[in-house]
């Protein structure tokens, strides 16, 4: 019979803190939650437990992203690798690759998830991680975003980059808000307004309309 060693106490404590931080940040916002509150929600009696494991709020947020985003990054890279070369400027396909991994994580049921709501809060509050996340964590979303930006620039060469950047942020807010709302519904035991795949199709269509309001990309 093989022997399975017990899970390291420090690792379990770290995981509890990340789960508590994800939930509280999702519910109340990044800046509105103290590290002491996160520690208490994670069942830690020591008021400095979060500082001991993560140091600062910024380091905790970074750890949360690194922990949750890494598998989504791999999923995006796999989807991107499977996309034929002739479709690498297909805005609908690129948007689907962008949003699908987060949507799948939202409904996978492996654990109670607040990640979509956390990402929406982070996006809504305009938070920026400095230094940026590494390619092993965020390379997938960066690659897809770069292709979206290139596609918009090629279709509308005279449109200022700031306009395209604004559309991209609006798209991110739309996607994260919709998935956050869907995650909240699932958390309450309610059904999604549409079957999962239908919801993703509608969300992708809406996101494409935000990115390409003039239809310039779709007319190419």
Please provide a brief summary of the model.
Residues 11-72 form the HTH tetR-type domain. With 220 residues, this protein is mainly α.
Secondary-structure blueprint:
Layout: H1 9-28, H2 35-41, H3 49-54, H4 57-82, H5 91-107, H6 115-124, H7 135-155, H8 161-187, H9 196-211
Helix pairs in contact: 1-2, 1-6, 4-5, 4-7, 5-7, 5-8, 5-9, 6-8, 8-9
Explain this structure to me?
It comes from Embleya hyalina. The chain is mainly alpha-helical and 220 residues long. It has two domains: 1-55, Homeodomain-like (Arc Repressor Mutant, subunit A); 68-219. The chain has nine helices and no strands. It starts with 8 loop residues before the first helix and ends in a 9-residue tail after the last helix. Mean pLDDT is 89; it is low at 1-5.
What is the CA-atom radius of gyration, in angstroms?
Answer: 19 Å
Distance between the termini: 63 Å
Question: Main β-sheet, in a few words?
Answer: none
Total individual domains = 2
Helical coverage, percent range: 55-70%
Structural class: mainly alpha
- The H-and-E topology, N to C, reads as HHHHHHHHH
State the shape.
elongated
Mean pLDDT: 89
Beta-strand content estimate: under 5%
Q: pLDDT below 50 for ≥5 consecutive residues: which ranges? A: 1-5
What's the total helix number? 9
* Strand runs, count: 0
InterPro entries: Homeodomain-like_sf (IPR009057), HTH-type_TetR-like_transc_reg (IPR050109), HTH_TetR (IPR001647)
Organism: Embleya hyalina
Keywords: DNA-binding, Transcription, Transcription regulation
Protein name: TetR family transcriptional regulator
